[in-house]
Prior knowledge:
With 263 residues, the protein is of the alpha/beta class. It has helices at residues 5-13, 26-35, 46-49, 61-74, 92-104, 120-128, 144-147, 156-172, 184-193, 214-217, 239-251, and strands at 18-22, 39-42, 79-83, 110-114, 133-138, 176-180, 198-201, 209-212. α2 (26-35) links the parallel β1 and β2.
Amino acid sequence: xxxxxxxxxxxxxxxxxxxxxxxxxxxxxxxxxxxxxxxxxxxxxxxxxxxxxxxxxxxxxxxxxxxxxxxxxxxxxxxxxxxxxxxxxxxxxxxxxxxxxxxxxxxxxxxxxxxxxxxxxxxxxxxxxxxxxxxxxxxxxxxxxxxxxxxxxxxxxxxxxxxxxxxxxxxxxxxxxxxxxxxxxxxxxxxxxxxxxxxxxxxxxxxxxxxxxxxxxxxxxxxxxxxxxxxxxxxxxxxxxxxxxxxxxxxxxxxxxxxxxxx
Length: 263
């Protein structure tokens, strides 16, 4: 049975962690689906882990539609979120067109946009058309040329701005929020203050769920995996077993630990 947004809210309301992982093709989606993940994210991170790009910026809308199509062919039950790529939000028409392609052609269940109050009009327009929207705050991969890969919200002013952005996105109509690389106490506060589920990556344990890049979960990423991640293939004999171990660790709240916190 296909997961619904209502079921994700029920998990959050009953304090059952939401397990989310990225996938970029039918095979990884199949094994993630079999492992019992609640959410699959088709992230523009594919630019770095699949295409070998230095950032997510070169990823195109055609790339995102193509990879979302593949994922949905392998996915049977998980809720599927697809990223709007860099500059797909240059104006309202562009946002609506990108979302339409990701849902109609890619068969995604939800679209994700990066940014705070700047994207409020886009969220409002998408929500008004019945399109489920996931926000993304904290470290924004599409803004790394200006802000870099570093913890966000570490000063009082930054924390206040992030919380205000989160509330503005909720008021505009987001249904989920991803928090990336923010201090755990700030993530806990944002989660407590918002009526929508919050999924963290490098945001500690006080959120409603966790998301990791599948290549990091399997130890396939060249070089060192991020501090907030872990190699779940260690000690397991298959991709399925590694994904199951990740899901179980999220559900049992044994991942993340203090060692995985950023800051």
